[in-house]
């Protein structure tokens, strides 16, 4: 961006403010913080109008800001009829331009300041701006001054806390993802969990700053959270010990068999590309001839790192992603700048509903160019590009300036109709009846949402990346026992005590034989009896009169038969926890994948289909010759 383009909007803004004040609109407003609040309001409207990717309506922005101002007063008896803060049908008239909007907002501001002398006008202004930003998409937001620096620190991973990424959806703290290897991840907190209480106090209605103040803290301190999990009727209680949050982004790398490498990437941060290539180099030295790239529950991050990773799979000048906006200056196309080092490496990408943004860019490029197979469940559908703009008081707004498109022209962003709750949890009901491959979806998808890959096979739009092979979630065994165990830290405490008592003997037997540990280690009958006792001490009740699982906040009731049927999940989780504590976090996922990984199991059956894609790309077969009609 040229210096002229950078400075021009600021000059325009100062001229507008100068004109307003010269014209007399500033004759009453004297205090510096009032001038700053009004200037900030004008900045926000200007930035939104000039940069937002979609259509904006100035009257709507203004009206919602006044509603936010009234909400900030928290007076349910307030009579606003006929006042400058009346937004009723009878009392509201449309605004025609920015000057009109600013003048009327100032009038409302002065009315509130004089009528409610105890009101904190900076907070009132912030609420007005936040309400105005809520009329846009879920990712265009206002960021308070004291939050801005903290967000930058968290992008670099330099912080302590419980280790989650979250959104506030319908006044409820919703976990986007538990940061891999952090305290929440170790306890089994997962994407979609809703935090409803913190330290026995309701957390409903918290804003971002409230959440950060309550959940962040010094290493070693504890916080208790109550969580509602989708499809669970009762809250789960977790006691989380705050800790350093890991900054590495490659969770695990290992060989699945003699020729198949596996790399799991948890997010895209500043070092992701170099970490990924280091992992690939290490696996290549061990004989890797094909790769499973695991992007499940990867919420995205730096676009530059997604492009750098995708670039490794393609020849020079391949389109990787493009952006589309109402403003032509934001329409761009990213192409590979060189021949990638992994151009000839067969690849399968694993995705799920927790894969978003940068993850969707990588998987979308690989799918659209028939470069490999995408396996799992449809991705989240977060394909919006944000630009952050600093305001006069060092607060910021983050404005969506464009949308991502895959190389075939598919919009990654799923539709948003204004209901943030529906938007966030819509993936739970999608494709519930889909077959293993996506061929049965073709007849259900309108022509407008069908696109063609480089070699002419069909791929689907409508938001997110629909895999080539869909692996349906197995809901026949809801993990009541394992959820109860991790919520009560039974597995963590069990493994800690186990190593305290048996550590020397265990390490002598297994420390230099991790692969043998994965295949041969079993918990003893004495260990399993100890596990049962700990579960019962934590609130498990075995009652032969019940026929299913009955969960409450502090107890779980079931019968002996169901306990024995489902306890294998607890045993596997404890084994993975044991591996983590002995060999480090990188040892956790190989053990987990040995026991809980239908997606990976299905993917390992599909290498013949990957070879068929190579034949398709080479022009040796047609799309109709593929086993799947995609």
Q: Can you walk me through this structure?
A:
- Strand 3 (164-169) and strand 4 form a beta hairpin.
- The chain has four domains: 3-136, no CATH class; 159-244, Roll (Pdz3 Domain), CATH 2.30.42; 250-384 and 403-473, Alpha-Beta Complex (2-enoyl-CoA Hydratase, Chain A, domain 1); 480-596, no CATH class.
- Helix 10 packs parallel to helix 11.
- The strands form six sheets. Strands 3, 4, 5, 6, 7 and 8 form a six-stranded antiparallel beta sheet that branches.
- The protein has 630 residues and is of the alpha+beta class.
- It has 20 helices and 24 strands.
CATH structural class of the largest domain: Alpha Beta
CATH topology of the largest domain: 2-enoyl-CoA Hydratase, Chain A, domain 1
Distance between the termini: 40 Å
State the share of residues found in helices, binned by percent.
40-55%
Structurally, the number of domains stands at: 4
Number of helical regions? 20
The secondary-structure class comes to alpha+beta
CATH superfamily of the largest domain: 2-enoyl-CoA Hydratase, Chain A, domain 1
Strand content: 15-25%
Average of per-residue pLDDT values: 86
**Which architecture of the largest domain does the CATH hierarchy give at level 2?**
Alpha-Beta Complex
Which stretches of 5+ consecutive residues score pLDDT under 50?
Answer: 1-11, 19-30, 420-437
Radius of gyration: 27 Å
The total count of strands amounts to 24
Rough shape? globular
């Amino acid at each position: 961006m040229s210096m002229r383009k950078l400075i021009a909007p600021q000059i325009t803004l100062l001229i507008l403010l100068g004109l307003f004040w010269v014209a007399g609109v500033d004759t009453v407003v004297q205090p510096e913080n009032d001038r700053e609040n009004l200037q900030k309001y004008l900045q926000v409207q200007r930035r939104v109008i000039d940069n937002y990717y979609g259509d904006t309506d100035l009257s709507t922005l203004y009206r919602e800001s006044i509603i936010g101002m009234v909400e900030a007063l928290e007076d349910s008896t307030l009579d606003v009829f006929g006042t400058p803060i009346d937004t009723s049908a009878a009392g509201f008239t449309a605004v025609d331009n920015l000057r009109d909007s600013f003048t009327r907002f100032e009038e409302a501001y002065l009315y509130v300041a004089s009528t409610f002398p105890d009101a904190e006008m900076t907070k009132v202004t912030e609420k007005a701006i936040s309400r105005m930003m809520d009329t846009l998409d879920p990712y265009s937001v206002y960021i308070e001054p004291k939050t801005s620096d903290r967000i930058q620190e968290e992008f670099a991973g330099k912080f302590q806390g419980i280790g989650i990424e979250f959104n506030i959806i319908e006044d409820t703290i919703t976990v986007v993802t538990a940061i891999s290897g952090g305290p929440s991840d170790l306890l089994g907190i997962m994407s979609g969990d809703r935090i409803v209480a913190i330290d026995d106090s309701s957390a409903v209605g918290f804003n971002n700053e409230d959440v950060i103040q309550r959940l962040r803290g010094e290493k070693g301190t504890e916080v208790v959270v109550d969580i509602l999990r989708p499809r669970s009727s009762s809250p789960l209680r977790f006691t989380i010990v705050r800790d350093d949050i890991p900054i590495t982004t490659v969770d695990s790398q290992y060989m699945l068999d003699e020729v198949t490498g596996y790399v799991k990437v948890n997010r895209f941060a500043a070092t992701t590309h170099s970490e990924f290539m280091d992992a690939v180099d290490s696996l290549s030295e061990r004989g890797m001839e094909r790769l499973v790239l695991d992007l499940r529950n990867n919420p995205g991050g730096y676009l530059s790192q997604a492009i750098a990773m995708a670039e490794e799979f393609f020849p020079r000048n391949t389109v990787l992603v493009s952006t589309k906006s109402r403003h032509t200056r934001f329409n761009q196309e990213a192409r590979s700048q060189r021949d990638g080092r992994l151009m000839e490496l067969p690849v399968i990408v694993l995705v799920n509903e927790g894969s978003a943004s940068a993850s969707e860019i990588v998987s979308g490029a690989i799918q659209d160019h028939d470069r490999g197979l995408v396996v799992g469940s449809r991705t989240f559908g977060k394909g919006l590009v944000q630009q952050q703009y600093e305001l006069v008081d060092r607060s910021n707004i983050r404005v969506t300036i464009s949308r991502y498109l895959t190389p075939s022209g598919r919009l990654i962003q799923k539709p948003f109709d204004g209901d943030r709750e529906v938007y966030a949890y819509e993936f739970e009901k999608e494709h519930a009846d889909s077959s293993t491959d996506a061929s049965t979806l073709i007849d259900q998808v309108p022509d407008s949402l069908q696109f063609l890959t480089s070699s002419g096979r069909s791929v689907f739009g409508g938001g997110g990346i629909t895999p080539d092979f869909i692996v349906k979630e197995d809901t026949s065994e809801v993990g009541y026992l394992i959820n109860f165990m991790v919520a009560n830290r039974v597995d963590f405490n069990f493994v800690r005590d186990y190593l305290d008592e048996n550590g020397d003997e265990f390490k002598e037997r297994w420390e230099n034989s991790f692969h043998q540990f994965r295949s041969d280690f079993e918990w003893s009958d004495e260990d399993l009896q100890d596990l049962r006792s700990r579960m019962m001490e934590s609130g498990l009740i075995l009652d032969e009169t019940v026929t299913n699982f009955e969960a409450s906040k502090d107890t779980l009731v079931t019968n002996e038969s169901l306990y024995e049927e489902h306890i294998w999940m607890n045993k596997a989780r404890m084994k993975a926890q044991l591996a983590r504590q002995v060999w480090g976090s990188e040892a956790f996922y190989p053990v987990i994948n040995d026991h809980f990984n239908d997606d990976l199991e299905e993917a390992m059956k599909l290498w013949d289909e990957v070879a068929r894609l190579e034949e398709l790309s080479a022009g040796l077969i047609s799309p109709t010759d593929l086993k799947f009609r995609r």
